[in-house]
Amino acid sequence: MKVAVVGATGLVGTKMMQILVERNFPVTELIPVASEKSVGKMVSFKGKEYPVVSMESAMAARPAVALFSAGGSTSLEWAPKFAEAGIVVIDNSSAWRMDPDKKLVVPEVNAQVLTAADKIIANPNCSTIQMVVALYPLHQKYTIKRIVVSTYQSVTGTGKKAVDQLFNERKGIQGEMAYKYPIDLNTIPQIDVFLDNGYTKEEMKMVKETKKIMQDDSIRVTATTVRIPVIGGHSESVNVEFEQPFELADITALLAAAPGVVVQDDVNAQIYPMPLWAHEKDEVFVGRIRRDETQPNTLNLWIVSDNLRKGAATNAVQIAEYMMANGLL
Asked: Could you give the CA distance from residue 15 to residue 88 in angstroms, rounded to a whole number?
């Protein structure tokens, strides 16, 4: 099983390689790929050093699967070429997510849509992934009408430059800025560019991707996405209105039984999800489960997950695992 990791020197690419090892994915040969300026650099995998290669060299090696995390323009240019060569591409950029001919997959929710014919598979946005993992089992029983979500997103979602900015500011060091404004001791209510409707691209990703993954265009979603000076994971305050009434005990039981979900909800002991606890874990943590007392059939939740793991790298590896287990690779 030859596996290419495209964007191997970036935060997500590095995490993909780590997770391939952790989950014992049967890699017989790793093919790390990065930009031309990184070709020849060495990366470590399972105690062995591998040289970073170019896109052309990776294609020539004919891996079974290529995990892409090198940005949308790279994916638009190269994913079709890899797919044409018979290589399954699992792409972490936004390039293919809303393409009607491409599957957008969170394995706990909709892995069953995958077929052997799918050669380019889209990995959803990090903030969308953790939300739908938690909400899908509730949607199956109570039918979601509307979601209002506000996110509190880690600087790791922007990349290494943003992590460096945060820690430089903490140390009082002048350095390169990933954001227009300081991030330490600050919150920035903008993730990605603003669109004509006043929402950011990140906010509209959550709206559109949720409908596609849940396979239900009737769900109304509105989002506000905010960058905060945190590493370790994204947090979300989610307000969900259902068609049917519910009991809180049933909600908690459904979440506790859901694949990939861990309930952390003991307010008496002050136990609730936090990025501090979610860091380097694959689960989606849910707490602060309570009824919205202002209108019927409505629930408040607090959802936290490591955005580099379940929100990106782990989800991509899980897709590859599903395809392998079901003879689709």
From this structure: 19
- Angle between the 201-214 and 126-142 helix axes, to the nearest 10 degrees? 40
C-beta separation of 144 from 240 below 8 A: yes
Tally Cβ neighbours within 10 Å of residue 179: 16
Q: Do 113 and 179 fall into the same domain?
A: no
Which DSSP string do the residues of 109-177 spell out, in sequence order?
Answer: HHGGG--TT--EEEPPPHHHHHHHHHHHHHHHHH-EEEEEEEEEE-GGGT-HHHHHHHHHHHHT-----
What total number of domains does the chain contain? 2
Q: What is the CA radius of gyration of the chain?
A: 20
Question: Which domain does 159 fall in, by range?
Answer: 127-307
For residue 218, the model assigns a pLDDT of 98
Q: Verify that 205 and 139 share a domain, yes or no.
A: yes
Q: Is the pTM of this model over 0.85?
A: yes
Can 234 be counted among the known catalytic residues? yes
Distance CA 288, CA 265 (A): 6
- Distance spanning both ends of the chain, measured CA to CA: 10
Q: Would you say the C-alpha torsion 91, 279, 144, 150 has a positive or negative sign? A: negative
Q: Can you say how many angstroms the Cα of residue 21 is from the centroid of all Cα atoms in its chain?
A: 19
Read off the CATH number of the domain in which 113 is found. Answer: 3.40.50.720
What are the pLDDT digits (tens) for 232-267?
999 999 999 999 999 999 999 999 999 999 999 999
Q: Which residues of the chain have pLDDT under 70?
A: none
Catalytic option among 139, 234, 309, 310: 234
Q: Tell me 294's DSSP state.
A: T
279 is catalytic: no
User: Among the options 126, 134, 301, 320, which is catalytic?
Assistant: 126
- 229 φ, ψ (degrees, to nearest 5): -80, 70
The CATH number for 184's domain is 3.30.360.10
**pLDDT score recorded for residue 36:** 87
